Amino acid sequence: MNAPGSTKATPLHGIASDAIDASCRMPLFVLFGVAALWLAASSVFGLIASIKFHSPTFLSEAGWLTYGRVYPAAKSMFLYGFALPAALGTTLWIFARIGKVGAAQPFFIAAGGALWNLGVLAGVIGIFAGHSTGFENMEMPRYAAVLLFFGFLLIGIWTLVTLHERRDRRLGVTQWFLLAALFWFPWIYSTAQLLLVVWPARGTAQAVIHWWFSANFTVLWCGLAGLGVVFYFIEHVAGRPLHNSPLAVFALWTSLLFVSWTGIPAGAPVPAWIPTLSTIAGVVSVVPLIALAMVLVPTLRATDVPPSAGGEITSHRSAWCRLTSTVPGRLVASGLVAFLVAWVVQLICAIPSVNGFVQFTWFTYALSQLNLYAFLALTLFGAIYLIAPRVAGMDWPWPKVVRLHFWLAVIGIALIVLPLAAGGLLQASKFASKASHPELSFVTVANGTLHFLRISSIGEVLLLLGHVLLAGNLLTLMARCARARLAAAYESAVAEVRTAEVKP
Amino acid sequence: MDPSLLNAPEADEMEPKKDVVPVWLIVLMVMLLYWGAVYFDRQGGWFSPQVYAPYRNLEEVRAYQPGGGAGDLFELGRSVYGQTCVACHQANGLGVAGQFPPLADSEWVNEPEPGRLIRIVLAGLQGPMTVKGQQYGAATMTPFAPILSDQQIAAVLTYVRQNADWGNKAPAVTPEQVAAVREKIANRSQPFTAPELLSISPAE
């Protein structure tokens, strides 16, 4: 079947892609389906937390609904309930598809997904009950972390085996990034969990470890996972080879080397050498950013398939046009833009004087939302909208709702990030002018951001609507797929009985 | 491995690889790392656990903060004097006529050995005494043994004895000297009197 001189269109010993999709069905239904529910729940509590900022008495009568519990719960649901499982499911499917091999042990991966979600449930209930660890981005208590660990182990091991068993032995940039993300999360989460919760480090070391974990999770892991998806879309959905693959791998290694040291603010109350190293690492991170830009910009601007790939010139549209011609691709492209903007802003914020200017304001929150939502979440939405119908073997129940969700998500996140960034800069300039305007008390300055917070609540409502649409669409798709498969199984069983009846 | 794979390389894999990491990017990275090393040398305090922002190195921290040593004993003494002694002996060290004897240019303060002075501070002083030819004794000196540490007493006496503004120029007092005297008079509950002090050698 693999005749010499065959073009690359023929898969090497490949199995049909719908068989690969079918092998991923059970694990992806568990990972994506529950992730969509967590996402909707996360935005409900995120909206409550957002409203509390301008209406403090809203839902304040019960302890579990106070800001200190609602906000960490919403963030944990987003990070651990939605982002991680969605990224893991996407990684599994991409490894299987590029490697032209079915998922290894789908049952164990699905069981791992169930265990993981049990851990998230225990963790969220723990946060509402007041058992939070008190460390941002890893508030879920110790008992939840144990479940998360074993869940991740099951998913991660069989995802790695899927990669190992790939029939197409080439390892592309997409796989490099996703593989790095797959290893990076367990390493940082288990280290932080052991050094902060199980055997807590003393003194300033705690703060340093926590900053290290937060930066590695919300910037580095998020960047690796999101970029992996972006590269998959460019290479395999828009069908364009990367302009310079070695440079992309160079960007991967330099980000692992430098970005992993960032995250400790310049004026942090810890021995000066730690924030100094972090500042240097932040500035040197310009190298992977330049490398990524040098890979992505020419790739996306290129209009023709390069002759070396042996392809016919079929289209004069640029890769960017191809990428944005579908809604999932448009989501990923928006995520990519957000990623580049976020990285540039992060670089500027690595400069100590800028860092001191914007610290303790809404600007840092806006930047983190740009990274976590506008980049990672939009990219993962793109992946889910691409993968789920293929895995289910049928189209979305409401295809137009997908387009509606795109607009809700983009406008919603813009209504959160832009006002809060503007409000944060206003806040920062008022803090900076405090010496010449002593009448500006902290409360006066904080009250000046109220209008921006009200606009961001509108953004949260739009995101919530989008999440409800996604969950409704996805769960209906899964239900229809299950019903169709049950009906088919019933039909074939009945047919067997009929032929058995006819024969004698 | 399937032999047909070895015989049938992909067309695009036969081409020499043109994609490389540009050299200038590596040069830029090395330059930034060099800048980082210089920046760390200036700002990082060389891993010292005592250097915090906004200080940049241990010398700066030492320059801005009182530490150990005799020179700093003088500064510590200034603050002890300001909290403990200034109410009676006054900021200028001249005291109040008839009540609180002066410390500035006083023969009691400028004795080469501090034994008597340490006793006065530790156990207090009452009764008449003559300082610079004037009679004092209407007030009683408080015993500070239970209030001030050896370090603080050594510091305040060093401050008083070495205060050039007051015309004093006597050797510094060490915490060890204070500790030795404190041990000798540990059982004493009464303040000293001037004749009793004069009967003790200042070196003891």
Q: Could you provide a short overview of the structure?
A:
Chain A is mainly alpha-helical and 504 residues long. Chain A is built from 17 helices and no strands.
Structural overview:
The complex is a heterodimer of chains A (504) and B (204). In chain A, 75% of the residues lie in helices and 0% in strands. With 504 residues, chain A is mainly alpha-helical. Chain A has a domain at 18-169. In chain A, α6 (173-198) runs parallel beside α8, α7 (204-237) runs antiparallel to α12 and α12 runs parallel beside α15. Chain A is globular and about 95 Å long. Chain A starts with 16 loop residues before the first helix and ends with a helix. The radius of gyration of chain B is 34 Å and the shape is elongated. The relative contact order of chain B is 0.12. Chain B has a two-stranded antiparallel ribbon. Chain B has 204 residues and is an all-alpha fold. The interface between A and B is large, with 39 and 37 residues.
List the helices and strands and how they pair.
The complex is a heterodimer of chains A (504) and B (204).
Chain A: H1 17-23, H2 25-54, H3 67-99, H4 106-128, H5 142-164, H6 173-198, H7 204-237, H8 245-258, H9 273-284, H10 286-301, H11 319-323, H12 327-349, H13 352-358, H14 362-392, H15 399-432, H16 442-447, H17 450-502
Chain B: H1 3-7, H2 11-14, H3 23-43, H4 58-64, H5 70-84, H6 86-89, H7 115-123, E1 129-131, E2 134-136, H8 150-161, H9 175-184, H10 194-198
Antiparallel strand pairs in B: 1-2
